[in-house]
Amino acid sequence: MKGGIRKAAAVIMTVTLLTILGAISVSASAVQPYSHGKLSRFNIQLVIDGSGSLVNGSGATDPNGLRYDAINMFLALLTNEGNNVGAIVFDDKSNPFILNTGLKPLLGKEEKIDLSEQIRKAGTGNDTDIGSALYAAVDELVNAGNGLPSAVILMSDGRTDLGSDKDALEKSLDRKEEAIELAQENDIPIYTLCLNASPVADPSELSEIASRTNGEAIEVNKAEDLSDAFRQFYTLIFSTSVENIQEDTFPESGQLGYDFEVPQYGAEEVNIIINAQSISMDALSSPSRDWTREEVQDCTMKGGNYWVIKLVNPEPGPWHIDLKGVKGDKSMINILYNVNTEAVLETANGASEYSLGEKAQLKLSLVQEGNAITDPNVSKEYQAEATFENLSTGNVSTVTMTPDNNGGFTCELAPTDYSTYKVTAKAWCNSISMDSNELQLNFGNSAPTLTKEANDAVIKVVVTPLTGRKKTVDVSKYFTDAQDSDLTYSIVSSTLVQDTADLDGSTLKVNTAKSKSGDVIIRATDSQGSYVDTKVRFKVTNLTIPIIAIILGAILIAVIIALTVRKLSQPAFRGTVRVSNKSNGMGLTLGAFKGKLKLSKFPVGICGLDAKTTYFEAKRNNGLEICSKRPFYFEGRAVTRARLFEGRSEVWADEAQTMGIDIDVMV
After folding, report:
1. Which of 33, 234, 626, 635 has the lowest CB atom count within 10 Å?
2. What is the mean pLDDT of residues 501-509?
3. Rounded to an integer, what distance in angstroms lies between the CA atom of residue 452 and that of residue 474?
4. Pairwise CA distance, residues 580 & 588, whole Å
5. Burial class (CB in 10 A: 0-12, 13-18, 19+), 153
């Protein structure tokens, strides 16, 4: 039977492995070209913890609902058109969530306020199922189908917590892993915010979610800091530029004035962010006129102590704000520009490799909707500079770029030694600063290139209790260089679980037993510092727990089968047995049975024999025996087993025959 159990477990394991083997792989592919800048239109999913710990008890993390004010400010900063936003408020239930608005276009002030109110009215529930909410958010972004880039903002004050329901907890953790893998495969960053004002908060869980999806994690210790955290997320995701004007105290007059500049190009919208108590807008002036209070009110959203005044397509030139407040109150004002322009750096001939002594001509253009701005007046507002980093020596220098007659800026680079340079540029005016893309220029040198294997390599990985717990990959096969036979390899970034990937020379080592799916960006660098990157994608499925569960299940099934077969194959006694007490005649007659029949089934009372350990056992050919763990006396001898025949037999508990039973057998 033991051999049968092992065979059953082996069959089940083999079938399972063959079924899923093809889905587990590691692939390497070339990294996509660098995007010239952040965009101003996105699909955004807000995933907001609605567990009871936010508001319940003395340890409530946000009893005053400051998270709603922070979300309101985030929505206010969004451009008035072009973004799609969804909100999920979750607790420990996913069917349905406390709130799931779906991904929808968010147009203008009224729709922003409406969404904010839906989130506020959703309220709170019970425990915390992060996995289900996160998967629902990412899945909707993947299926948005509108061509916009996507991002998730996840806010929680705790960790995945479903009380004592272990099955629900396991399902939530599995769902979270599925959400992370789906986000990785579709380049959706997840930005996480941990309100760490509670002893149950777990920043490490949220930090891992962010790091494995190329997002960012922010930890705040009090709800009052939520607005700053959401504003930081906004500037991380969207194309913006911030002018920190000043922090002031209202004087005796109760009046404060601020000036700011709007350039002709670059600022699609201007957001005036005011953080103050008991203030009112006294005056707002554009270069050509004074705004009425009604006009200011129409473009203002408020959340707690924050005011956001949004100016859409603002008039270029100097603006002025007057605030009225209470003497001694603090006031802080920031100007956040929603930027619709990016700085694009390129070489005049589009080349990246030059002969030694050859000059590289560089041009920086301001670009809107894919088209370079050709207005020569750009140089009256903007300045530009280029930064050259010699990757061979590490030396860095910065030069001022010269305005041309077509709205751009130029400079040249002409090194005299074999070298590779990383070149970046920056354009700025008083209010807006834009960093360009990065160029790598080689002089008398050729950069490493990717081999075909970098695009087509697929490496099978299976993690079981016995195999696949560590994986090594020789990354040198993904790169080649016309001049250098020996390249240097490094890990640029990794979205695997932290500390599970290591590079030893050209050997990439991954602890697949601890890691999960993710990407590792590998860089190959030549002797001049020139480099190229490739992405190695690991799709890891750890079968250790499922296989152990399958093996245990198979063993259990085999044991059940064995017991059943054994029971079915037991001999049967087809006659009747009457047992009676020698002392008082108490007894009972029972009919046919299989296997064993305990003496305790016969109510004979105290007879000197242990009713629990004494039993009748059916034998082949309709035979019958009486058995006991303790010796009894049968036909004058002390025995533990005696054959019974048709008729009456006497069984004594002691040699003196003071107590015992009569057994009448009828075959």
Report:
1. 33
2. 93
3. 15
4. 7
5. buried
Check if the beta carbon of residue 640 is closer than 8 Å to that of residue 632: yes
What is the pTM for the complete model shown?
0.76
User: Does CATH place domain 448-540 in 2.60.40?
Assistant: yes
Q: Inform me whether the pLDDT recorded for 21 exceeds 50.
A: no
- Residue 54's CB: how many other CB atoms inside 10 A? 26
CATH class of 572-666: mainly beta
Model pLDDT, residue 8: 36
**pLDDT value, residue 288:** 96
Burial class (CB in 10 A: 0-12, 13-18, 19+), 489: buried
Instruction: Give percent of the chain with pLDDT exceeding 90.
Output: 56
CA distance 176 to 128: 12
Q: Do domains 448-540 and 572-666 have the same CATH topology?
A: no
What is residue 468's predicted lDDT score, i.e. its pLDDT? 54
> For position 169, what pLDDT does the model report?
87
Question: In CATH, which of 3.40.50.1860, 3.60.20.30, 2.60.40.10, 2.60.40.420 is domain 342-443?
Answer: 2.60.40.10
Which residues sit opposite 587 in a β-bridge?
Answer: 580
Q: Which of 42, 27, 149, 97 is nearest to 453 (CA)?
A: 27
- Boundaries of every domain in the chain: 1-24+544-569, 342-443, 448-540, 572-666
The strands making up 317-324's β-sheet, listed across from edge to edge, are: 255-262, 317-324, 280-285
